[in-house]
Amino acid sequence: MSKNTATPSLIAADVRLTGTLSSQGEVQLDGRIDGDIKADTLIIGSQGQVEGSVEATDVTIKGRVSGSISASKVAIESSAQVQGDVFHDTLSIAAGATMEGQIKQLNKKDSFSVVSNNDVADSQVNK
């Protein structure tokens, strides 16, 4: 089943989890998670709360996040409250959102560097 046709995972408003949540698909969070989240797509509803770091491809925040966010695409809606650093490729922040922390664009060019043939050979040997 491809991630585009998979049923999203739903964490209801009356659910509180402690620990790390990991999903290769879409997660809709309306409850609270005390811990880190790793997902392909994460939607934090207006009642959703995260106390920990968020790592995803696509994140939409309508609720509260206390911790760092690292995602290719980040959308912070007007009802959102974010306390923590945001690392992104693309970012939108709606009027009315509360944001405390640093914002840093992930520049893919920064992660590329010129390597010599010796560096490549050394990295192959060390694996």
Structure explained in plain terms:
There is one protein chain. With 127 residues, the chain is mainly beta. The protein has one helix and 14 strands. Strands 1, 3, 4, 6, 8, 10, 12 and 14 form an eight-stranded parallel sheet that branches. A six-stranded parallel sheet has the order 2-5-7-9-11-13, with no helix packed on it.
Counting DSSP E segments of at least 2 residues, the number of strands comes to 14
Strand content is over 45%
Biggest β-sheet: count, sense, barrel?
Answer: 8 strands, parallel
Structural class: mainly beta
Mean pLDDT: 86
Q: What is the chain-wise order of helices and strands? A: EEEEEEEEEEEEEEH
Helix content: under 10%
Quaternary state reads single chain
Distance between the termini: 32 Å
| Helix run count | 1
Mind telling me the C-alpha Rg? 17 Å
> Tell me, what's the shape?
globular
Unreliable stretches: 109-127
Describe the structure concisely for a colleague:
This protein has 127 residues and is mainly beta.
Structure keywords:
mainly beta, 6-stranded parallel sheet, 14 strands, disordered C terminus
